[in-house]
């Protein structure tokens, strides 16, 4: 099936959420080891009504000041709203052989909803068949809705739209005419980030070149730092966008060393680092492309509690839902010229109202078309 056809099927399952923009803060290190008592002791019944309110949030590791921590902020809010949420750190890809057991333990403890990112999709789909009385949420992913079981819901973000906006900024800020987008690992969702970014760069200034590379891990900041230093030295890149989870710290470290600008991802990484033990990293982060994972999870479970139809479909969220965007803080305003900020704001409005359609990785017929895009902008 062509990628474009897949996306067309995906968009048929659109559900609109009202999302608040993700603000600053620090990543939680919640260890809810004994929070399973509520779900197990009450036999999975909700504190009120007949909706089971027990959630197991499966995450690689907290503390990435990005994607995983954004999801945890949603769990914290759900706890405040009376949900029994247990956050389970399953470890990075080196612990992949234990991931399924981790989810099975959560089910055995009485947790009804299993929530995990696209990293765990194959395991989720397997367990959904084996445990039809449980319900599973895969966020940051999409698939043909005809193949989604009735006890599974997908949440998909238009990361290409948010990446387009920071791509415009990168093109407006570069002095060398070369910018970089570096990722943790390649997969369709990450390629969608890259596609949107490249198109934002090119639409702002078609003369700006883009280098792209992957470090092969979400947890290797040292490798990311070395990669960025090499790109700055050998390819003259001077604005760097990271889509790399915990590896992204290395990109910020490299930018501090070289005096270049950086763009964060998923959460307000300027705010995270400004309040961290390494505040100097914040001083290179012009903005972050927001993917409001925490807000989307809260909105999703509000829909569940309200009895709305969210299962067996892809729930798609973009700029019009405020599910993606960019950080517009004082540091951004002080360092990004007005004309660049105006261009970003104009594009944001046009994308949200449907006047501007941003190219997506899912528009390509096959991988060769995506590679052709990468080749067309390489220095």
From TrEMBL:
CDD domains from the UniProt entry: PBP1_BMP-like
Keyword Cell membrane: yes
Membrane topology field: Lipid-anchor
Signal peptide per UniProt: 1-20
One GO CC term on file: plasma membrane
Keyword entries, A-Z: Cell membrane, Lipoprotein, Membrane, Signal
Annotated compartments: Cell membrane
The UniProt record lists the keyword Signal: yes
ABC transporter substrate-binding protein PnrA-like domain segment(s): 57-358
Classification via PANTHER family: ABC TRANSPORTER GUANOSINE-BINDING PROTEIN NUPN, TRANSCRIPTIONAL ACTIVATOR PROTEIN MED
Name assigned to this protein: BMP family ABC transporter substrate-binding protein
Organism: Candidatus Lachnoclostridium stercorigallinarum
